[in-house]
Amino acid sequence: MRNAVIASTGSYLPETVVSNEDLKQFPQEAIQLIGEKTGVFFRRMASDKECTSDLAVQAAIACLDKIAYSPEGVEGILLATSSPDRMQPATAARVQHIIGAKKAFAFDINSVCSGSTFGIAMANALIKSGYCENILLVASEVYSKIMNRKDFSSYPFFGDGAGAVLFQAGDTSGEGVLHSCLRTDGRGSDTISVPAGGTMLPFAKMTKTRSAFFRMKGIDVFNFAVDKGSEIILQLLKDADADINDIKCFVCHQANANIIHKIAGILAVSADRFFMNLSSYGNTAAASVLIALDEAISTSVIAKGDLVVTVSFGGGLSWGANLIRI
Amino acid sequence: MKQVLLDNFFESGDGSISPETKLGEIPDWDSMEAVNLQILLHDTFHVELPLELLHEDTIFNDLVMLMKQPDKIPAAMKKFKERN
């Protein structure tokens, strides 16, 4: 059965490391809340000169170089982002040009923090259909440039970064992307948003500066993530007829350590089986699952042959999960 | 001060503040928004209010009084600690 198999992974985290204590714009008495409420202690921040495609390019190069794969062999690039270089064109187009993937079609997908899992499902679908032999899936976010740096309800929790996976067509039954579940509930479309800059509220019509910045309803998002994150994992395993005890590692969207622990608790799975790196990188939105996947593979937490669940939840509201044999 | 709160914590047209409004009634109020309010009051009115006095049961009228008479903040803190 033809499907998408992981050939390589890569990631890029900007050089600048920002600790919670470095966030001098916030009252120092509040700093401890950051770690308590989310488990984030450090994050990376893109330089003034780096935009989303720059991070994506570095992650893509890291991915391809790992197996000495020529960019000229890449047939399609999907870029998951909710902090694009510009409203248009697709950020993926610039990535295609810079890495030299001359043959590749390239487009963006935006499902906010669920971008990676939606991207994995789409890459698999494109390969399964026979349309292409490989897809370079990249997820890249520079939230530091779309948030109000004085908004304590968002700014401290997010970081910048990019991850990449090269999928190739495989014919080995039981390997690669085995199943995906994707869900959206548009009733929650105001829960996580950047209100201005699109056709709903053009910048010229803004009456409040804060409309230009990312915002989310913290408690609603927390409850949604715990509820739907656990539910979609169970749905995925049921649909795929897979046993939760056979899952080597859960690679969850790195939004909040407390969310991940609660999901583990609901599933009656040890939290040790949930890979976590958000203490170092913060919430990198769509990029978090691919960055975590790359790191889990690079540090041998997961290896060839292991069964892995990737799961994410985010703006839309959207949520998704993939079952992958590495 | 009411307008500052309305502008920064309510979407246009969906909120009102009375003297008896509690901070917990502000949309999406949580401990993070309390920090945002602390920052806003400092930046706008140059008054430092401890986070303990910005809890969900704080009444708007009491907040206004503390902003107008910041010398009463230590007494308010003492009262808060005695109650908690």
Structural account:
- The complex is a heterodimer of chains A (326) and B (84).
- With 326 residues, chain A is α/β, with parallel strands linked by helices.
- Chain A folds into two domains: 3-173, Peroxisomal Thiolase, Chain A, domain 1, CATH 3.40.47; 177-325, 3-Layer(aba) Sandwich (Peroxisomal Thiolase, Chain A, domain 1).
- Chain A has eight helices and 14 strands.
- In chain A, strands 1-7-6-4-5 form a five-stranded mixed beta sheet, sandwiched between helices. A five-stranded mixed beta sheet of chain A has the order 8-14-13-11-12, with helices on both faces.
- The mean pLDDT of chain A is 97.
- Chain B is an all-alpha fold and 84 residues long.
- Chain B is built from four helices and no strands.
- At the A-B interface, α1 and α5 of A face α2 of B.
How is this fold's topology laid out?
The complex is a heterodimer of chains A (326) and B (84).
Chain A: E1 3-12, E2 16-19, H1 28-38, E3 42-45, H2 52-66, E4 76-80, H3 91-99, E5 105-109, H4 115-128, E6 134-141, E7 161-170, E8 176-184, E9 192-193, E10 215-216, H5 218-239, E11 249-252, H6 257-267, E12 274-275, H7 278-281, H8 287-298, E13 307-314, E14 318-325
Parallel strand pairs in A: 4-5, 4-6, 11-12, 11-13
Antiparallel strand pairs in A: 1-7, 2-3, 6-7, 8-14, 9-10, 13-14
Chain B: H1 2-9, H2 31-45, H3 60-68, H4 73-83
Summarize it:
The complex is a heterodimer of chains A (326) and B (84). Chain A folds into 2 domains: 3-173, Thiolase/Chalcone synthase (Peroxisomal Thiolase, Chain A, domain 1); 177-325, Peroxisomal Thiolase, Chain A, domain 1.
